[in-house]
């Protein structure tokens, strides 16, 4: 493969999603994902469990979804990345839990999407002589193509489908209430007794209808494509929940009032049955079919949009085929979208998706349980990097209520649902241990920081551990290098042009404000850049809202004021994470100082070769403590410039009384200081001989 082809592949892999969706799109996607079987099929089945308490069951279910909504809103504002739930679970409880969540959620969305497209075919067959499977497959192909055009086109179509659906349902509610008002005596008689099957029957019905609201959580999968996620996601989700709750309550009230109990129980088309009773404001069956088609189509469209982000997220972490992580210029993960469409077709052809989809929906309860736990873990671990733009109200009681609720609903869902959840967990675990564990980029989850606090470690120990365990940020140097943005300049360029190019590449990768990134990077890089070996300049840049550190590597002739450089390396991190950035910068400088680096920098022909140059220098980080006695006692009161270190090693950081300090030559070391040393392999034996060392 040529160098140009490698660079193009690297560019696709590093490219980010376009943040183009606002609150209206969030509302449409959430609303579209909630309707279909929940309104057009489920009321008849739930009536067998709830009886006259059917509207109450829908109301209770809408309240019980709130802990999941608030938890996902907070997590999405803190980690606004594609495949959100996978990352929430991974970074709070470890890669294994993330993989299980991604595997189960992807399967659940595939089954839900397949069921929705089959539902379109089924409703069409009521008014036309069509075969269900070909219709479903044609729709899958059409909506897959739509998703390939871009998220804006997909969201616009979703808005149109939801608008049609809401207009028809609004007419249904108005016509139904008009009919009910004409015979008010029916209301009291129809809803007596309110709990015909007792509280147990109500809870069973709640567990059954809860799935009607569960689709609202799909928005977390595409949070990377939402503008201002800390505002748009909670606002859009709550608005969608409010509208849906009103429609569900009003709709089931009308159905139960106008349809006899015996006829409603088990009715698989309760909306059409109720509309047949309308006399003042008639509603033709064809209009109901159109509304049902819009509901099922919007659910299927939202399923493809959300599902395709899970392979993308896994590929970014190098846990699946790397091509699944490629994003085109429009911000579309094309390979992942195509894979999702192909799997949907196979599901329609090979399985009875209706039965499996019901079981798969139970897995959502497991995911919602995980979301509540993730918020608690992040909050209680007190990670500096966890900075959500939106915080769940009533913490921790909201999350505690969610954990209790979702465990209860899982139990009430029946043994088959529990068995399905266990099967997903087992399959995900096998995939992790036997398929991808070796490829995992080893990171510490936030839960380990929490365990440290629960073990009553001192604050100093906890802070020191945090310095060495980048639990949320993926800040291991090797991980930062592996996802680095790399490009070569074809000819000599001025500083301003180079930084603009770097800012554009970073914005394509992460999203955000292109102009703001360029302005901040131009200021920071010029201020901090310093030449190193091979005439390569190194500089940090601090930006707002950067979730994890990133590295931009530029090779080529760069003219900066009166200086000429052969390349530039920029380490970018959040402005609140300067300590973390300084640690990485020290490690990078140590790598570049290695004797073999200049030659490797020149000879590398492809991005992966250049990245290897950063990883193959054998640099290690070590920690020493300045004690009152022992081999480090002589450092107490010694200035940094007077500390004799072997060739190939340097003093990177000093941890003192809860603060991280960057050493300078006039700084005086003190008893109790913890010093991070960075050294190449040749210097390690000499350092080990002089000090008692522990590798970080």
TrEMBL record:
Keywords: Membrane, Transmembrane, Transmembrane helix. It is found in: Membrane. It comes from the Bacteria. InterPro entries: AA-permease/SLC12A_dom, APC_superfamily, PTrfase/Anion_transptr, RCK_C, RCK_C_sf. It is a multi-pass membrane protein. PANTHER family: AMINO ACID TRANSPORTER-RELATED, MEMBRANE PROTEIN. This is Amino acid permease. It comes from Pontibacter diazotrophicus. The lineage of its organism: Bacteria, Pseudomonadati, Bacteroidota, Cytophagia, Cytophagales.
